[in-house]
Amino acid sequence: MDDEHGRRPPSRLLLVVFLATVVALPVAVTQLEVSPHRVTVGTVVVATLLLIGTIALPALILTRWRAADRDEADFAGRRRR
Fold this sequence. Notes:
The chain is mostly helical. The protein has one domain. The protein contains two helices and no strands. It has helices at 10-31, 41-80. α1 runs antiparallel to α2. The chain crosses the membrane at residues 12-29, 41-62. Keywords: Membrane, Transmembrane, Transmembrane helix.
């Protein structure tokens, strides 16, 4: 579904980012060394994935909520005409 600019909607990109994070996080936790006492590559990767997930999920929710409000306003505007 392309919008008027020929790009995909941001909610689709956010969904892909969030789902990739959800899949990569358990893999990173089980395959990399994660230590709360020192900085390791695994700790950095897991922390980065958690940060990306905590930003992407609210953004996804708000984007879909805003799109639903916009669709509802468009529908109400068409009914009045």
